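Hey everyone, long-time lurker, first post.

I ran two proteins through the pipeline my lab uses and got sequence/structure pairs for each. Pasting them in order. The first:
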Amino acid sequence: MPKTILVSNRLPIRINSEGIPERTTGGLASALEAAETKGPKLWVGWTGGPEEEIDDRAALTTQLRSLDIEPVFLSQAEVDGFYEGYSNSTLWPILHGMLERTQFNQESERLYRQANEKFAEAIVAIAEDDDIVWIHDYHLFFLPAMLRKKMPGLRIGFFLHTPFPSSDILRTLPAKRELLLGLLGADLIGFHTYNNLRHFRSSLLRVLGIETEHDSLYHLGRKHQLGVFPIGHNRKGFHEAMATDTFFAAQTELAENLGERKLVLNVERLDYTKGVPQKLDAIRHFLESNPDQRDKIMFLIIAVPSRQNVEEYADLTEQVQREVGAINGDFGTVKNVPVHFLHRGFPPEELAAFYSLADVCLVTPLIDGMNLVAKEFIDCKKKTPLTRPGVLILSEFAGAAAEMSHAYLVNPYAIQEVSEALTECLALSAEEMWSRTEAMQNHLAKNDAGIWANRFLTFFDDPASSSGPTRGLARVERSLKESQLCGKRLSLFLDYDGTLREFTKRPQDAVPDAGLLPLLHRLREKADLSIVSGRPKEFLEQHFGGQGFNLVAEHGYRWSRVDHPSWALTNPHVDVSWKELILPQLEQIADLTPGSHIEEKQSALVWHYRSADPEFGLWQARRLLVELTELSASLPVSVHHGKMIVEVASQQVNKGRAMQALIHSLGSEVALAAGDDQTDESMFSSEPSIEQFHTIHIGDSNTRASHVTTFDGFRTFLENLADSLHS
């Protein structure tokens, strides 16, 4: 039965007092343990320290494997470069849109790649085809593609727990292409919010030139699903914590200490993305504006230490502690110290006690992938004797803002706005607070961490979820060879751009490369060969004329056959009067889209936007498609969106009809058609009355072809075919 292999940077373990590793719960570990899988679950991850500090690596490995954990060991240099360096000093600030904090270092990038390779090796050692591998977070961006190369049969998911930046920010990263291509090793790529998904799609378009559907894309013949999966909190864990004696003792003690004072709570990891200095500015503004409240409120900031060995974080800690002291010095009284700063973590039982008694939870990160504190706070509000009603003030830049509809949303940079929200929230009635809380609790109950994990993994229950490229080209080659040996007449129908020649920025530069003509001549010696292209006859005649090839130009409008080399219309009765109506529409869009142009063919009009801004060009193309579809409803034309083009072509002309006519005139018994875009689908959907008909699609889109490959893969296939066929 297939396994589910969970992969994260850090393992869900702790070392107990006897030096023995134990499984931990909470956070991601609890969510993934709650996931329902048909087969066993294994973890793969870094042990958390440099391997030089491990006394007995073999013994630790044995102990961890007994816990269903496969460890990854990193050297001190790899820890420094992979974790402290590239992950936390390069990727973390870029993902959060903070370029001014980003450090670029080639050695760190190399070590990041090296560490990802170690993760891949550890997974391959325990994985089998059809296993599910679920990879988590930004430490492992390169891993999906590494795994796909080593084990194509794996089902791979990736989930990003941070924000994904805009394409303008991502493009500053030297390894941006490798990062995106690394993620495209996964069958399913998940994000917390649609905004992050939108940025990812934009980056694919602007960096790699890959157009996507709203929830999927095709790349190298494989379909990749994109999804939005907002993670929930560990609801079960907090409910269990609230049933313990520790919780009741902590709640009672805190309630006594508070007395009549109101509690404004903040729980954060001390990171520059969390906006703690800005929060302190808002608290200062509130205390200045509300002197009568100074003895009536306790601000409690729980700041969990983070990356203390990084100088930037040490500076942040010092800055926060200094400002807390300044606020208390300016506004403290004999009765009350307004701000209590606790620089340490707390167990769930004590956190739940804090949440239960907080009148306001102030969650104001500058940017956050999700922020589970907001969800934990709301879920810990139960109508018990000591529990107080409370209200959530939440940053509009936290991922949780999309779900927490009854929170007070604020801009964390707007100090006065946060201060005024505090004033307003503290004045709310208990009924209003409970009403807001209860409105969000029902949603949280249906979307906790375990349910989130199950939603993600359910994708892999569909047998079609892992739609990898067809790996049957070797069988096609054998079949064609066997048919030819039996005396069957073999015909090849090959598109040009994107099939025999890679795309270039300027179409006029896409002339045959040095190896193409010799290859085509080798094939022509052994089979009928037809080049079926959208190019004009002048281009085909210049590069392929008089060399024994059948040439079909302008998607089937004209042809030049070996037995009738003069160019002629494939259908002399084609009506192209519709061009007078369509051309003004294309001219208008070309004028409005810098970098685009119109190509006029005898039976088609094509708007090209390959040199335009990719996102703007795609947006204009989709607008144009709607307009042209309405305009041409009663015209004998077809409208299609190809690779950086929108084409309007006569319905009386297509590649499929030209191919069918050639099959008939050649007396073909076995045929192969290959192409890369929508214009080639008319060949793929043809059903010629011959013994065998093979179809191959080159590239990254949905297709009716029976086989899919890459440009390089198809060139290799043709080379092998030329070698295996007999003259």
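...and the second, right after it:
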Amino acid sequence: MITTILAYVIAVLGFVMICGGVYSFFNLWNARATLRHYAITIGMICGGFGLGGIAQALRLLVTIVAMNQEHYLTLQSLLQAH
């Protein structure tokens, strides 16, 4: 349960980073900044997508562990029945 909450917190932080990067991009666009100032903005957006990917991988890991645990318990109960 705690791991699932952690995955959702990471996903929300990734979304916040993407939104902050987009806001920064448009702020730089309106200020007519030079191209080299956009590097931090692009890095922030990419970092947000990276956090989203980590959150999805963590959610997938929780699902795999839960499925394996159910399969193990089912197999164990079948072996004890015989």
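Reply from user beta_strand_b:
Welcome! Quick read of the second one: The chain has two helices and no strands. The mean pLDDT is 86.
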